[in-house]
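We close this part of the discussion by returning to an individual protein. In the encoding step, the backbone of a single protein was reduced to a row of integers, each denoting a local shape. The sequence in question and its structure tokens are set out directly beneath this paragraph.
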Amino acid sequence: MQPLRIGVIGLGRAFTLMLPSFMQDARVQIVAACDLRPEARAQFEKDFSAPSYSTVDGLVSDTNVECVYIASPHQMHLDHCQRAAAHGKHVLVEKPMALTVDDCATMTAACAAAGKRLIVGHSHSFDAPYQEARAILEAGALGAVQMIQALNYTDFLYRFRRPEELRTQDGGGVVYSQAAHQIDIVRLLAGAPITRVRAAMGAWDPHRPTEGAYSALLWFENSAFATITYSGYGMFDSDVWCDQVSELGLRKAQSNTGQAKQRLNQNTAGTTESQRKAEVTYGGAHYASKRERTEFSEHFGPVIVSCTHGALRIAPTGLTIYSDIGETFQPISAPQVSRSGVIDEVLTAIRNGAPTLHDGKWGQDTLAACLALLQSHRVQSDVVLAPRA
């Protein structure tokens, strides 16, 4: 089978996190890229010996591109997906899929009209710990899923940000970027659509004027419910509850509490935060061109699933199963290729023409739940989600 030829829109943070997968997986080939930054395009041409474009139209017009990976800012996903579909390209789009449910539906319709596939990822619901947990739950020995608890404490809000990343209306804050991961995970584990949500948000730093924390209760169609909690304020690092393994699957020697905020507050006269972010992003002056090979699976914080006949603790090193007959541990091997689950699903859709989990409707439903969290906090009440069509 010939490698799937991928063109990339946006050589930023999302691209750098997928880059090891693209470089290590022989089933795909990066053949073109688009970015506004000349230094990023120069780095790409050096790394891949392939063309780069300063405009999206240039990339989607490239006849060598079969699939477009959209890793541009959230608010641009709709336009970039429509352009890719109009030029007969399959689409892999980063989460969140878009900023409104209508935009998601438009993206799905555009790809369907062009006869092309749409996959939404990466989200952490692709990660091996959650996929293996779902297989155990589907096998039925633990009985029905009754309750899920998921939480994550990070320094997300104090990493270098462009202005729109701190404006909720432009897709900024932790709900669009981080709740999308957590909601995907609990939806996967519950195995049913979300019907109702109740949420509270925290926006506690006037210098970072967007949501930095949330807690929410989600109800599912099968009577299960989940609590999800996230804080990006960097006061506590929940990786201590994940065997001291980072979100990206690397062993952490110590907690990184406070480090992001310290870097942000360093005196860098004459340099904006956006410029500092560009310096450490792909092609920037301080960009680290290689990432360590992952020692463990990626993850998104500790998760506990309570079932009729037992419980399941999900961690990057493995799954602990609790039942009436005792406690067992099922280790999870480090992936040969990080985020290979994304590539698996893309190829299943495009090469095999088979249905996939993370399609446009999945991405739309996850976004609908994210928006419901924001609305619930705003109106201080439950929000009922429309039944899945």
